[in-house]
Amino acid sequence: MNILDKIIAHKIEEVAVRKIMLTEEEMKDCSHFTRPCFSLKKNLLAENSTGIIAEFKRRSPSKGFINQHADAGAVTKAYTQFRASGLSILTDHEFFAGNNEDLITARVNNIPILRKDFIIDPYQVTEAKAIGADVILLIASCLTIAQVKDLAAYAKELQLEVLLELHDETELDHICNEIDLVGINNRNLKTFDVDIHQSILLSKSIPSGKVTIAESGISDPSNVQLLKNAGYKGFLIGENFMKEKNPGKAFQNFVQKLHQ
Fold first, then answer.
1. Which of 1, 51, 69, 133 sits a CA distance of 20 to 30 A from 112?
2. Active-site choice (88, 185, 188, 240)
3. What is the pLDDT of residues 42-55, one digit of tens each?
4. Confidence band (pLDDT; 50, 70, 90) for 186?
5. How far is CA 21 from the centre of its chain?
6. Is 233 a catalytic residue?
7. Beta bridge partners of 166
8. Which residue from 24, 166, 189, 16 is spatially nearest to 95, judged by alpha carbons?
9. Is 55 a catalytic residue?
10. b vs e for 12-32, b when ≥16 Cβ sit within 10 Å of the residue's Cβ?
11. In which band, very low, low, confident or very high, does the pLDDT at 133 lie, cut at 50, 70 and 90?
12. Is 133 helix (H, G, I), strand (E, B) or coil?
């Protein structure tokens, strides 16, 4: 099994357990469930937007712990202060050392929050809304075309935006009307190799009208400019900031260089 297969196999078991612990009806009583959502799409298209979706994650399956003891509240507050267009919070525990509480903690920030996880079941969409997310991630590599459409349609019912993540041209047919944002992940989730030019290669194949986001491997402001020239409006960056002792300061420095 490759890494992605292992993650999905574990996620199926995890979701089954969570359904027993807390029902969807119980989640709908959470205070965040009726909260109006912030629009990531709107923020990325705003005239003075940095375009950066700043990610909070402690660990990756390929590199182990990146910043094991980072505080979600402090880091996301700094991201927001220094003009992140949105936040991305890893909520997978087994492989990324994240949890729902990190997203709940980050919810004090009044900008869009993407729940970064491996969503395979409508239960997780309800859960995303209940913990305060504004956007969910759907990964084409682990979903059928029909599953993407059904999960995205349910997300729209809950007023959540949907980011569809693609890795190569074979997944383009997963794009549907219910998708708000299309992300190209430069990291191969089966091998975890990274190639930033993957975003550039696929940029011309994304239907017009879909806001595009480049993900992974963005380590320098010059990468952002290169991707902007290819039509990208959003840039999901996490490890580049999280590997530093002070991720918020690293983000501030990155944004300053971006506007020099």
1. 69
2. 185
3. 999 999 999 999 99
4. confident
5. 25
6. no
7. 184
8. 189
9. yes
10. eebbeebeeeeeeeebeebeb
11. very high
12. coil
pLDDT at 260: 76
Q: Check 11, 57, 129, 233 and give the catalytic one.
A: 57
In one-letter notation, the amino acid at residue 158 is L
Residue in 161, 165, 171, 239 annotated catalytic: 165
Per the CB < 8 A criterion, the answer to whether 36 and 173 are in contact is no
Give me the catalytic one of 11, 41, 116, 233: 116
User: Among residues 216, 233, 239, 240, which one is catalytic?
Assistant: 216
Among 14, 127, 171, 215, the one annotated catalytic: 215
Residue 183 is classified by DSSP as E
pLDDT over threshold 80, residue 236: yes
Question: Which helix H or strand E contains 194, and what residues bound it?
Answer: none
Q: CB–CB of 15/123 below 8 Å?
A: yes
Known catalytic residue at 165: yes
Q: Which residue bears the tokens 């990756």? A: 60
CA nearest neighbour of 44 among 9, 83, 79, 89: 83
DSSP 238: -
Q: Catalytic annotation on 171?
A: no
Mean pLDDT (the chain) is 95
Per DSSP, the residues of 37-70 read PP-HHHHHHSTT---EEEEE-SEETTTEESSTT-
Q: Determine whether 3 is exposed, middle or buried from the number of CB atoms within 10 Å of its CB (0-12, 13-18, 19+).
A: middle
Say if residues 89 and 53 touch (Cβ distance below 8 Å): no
Q: Tokens 């918020």 label which residue?
A: 248
The residue type of 191 is T
pLDDT given at position 189: 66
Is the pLDDT at 198 greater than 90? The verdict is no
Give mean pLDDT, residues 216-233: 93
Domains and CATH numbers, the chain: 3-258 (3.20.20.70)
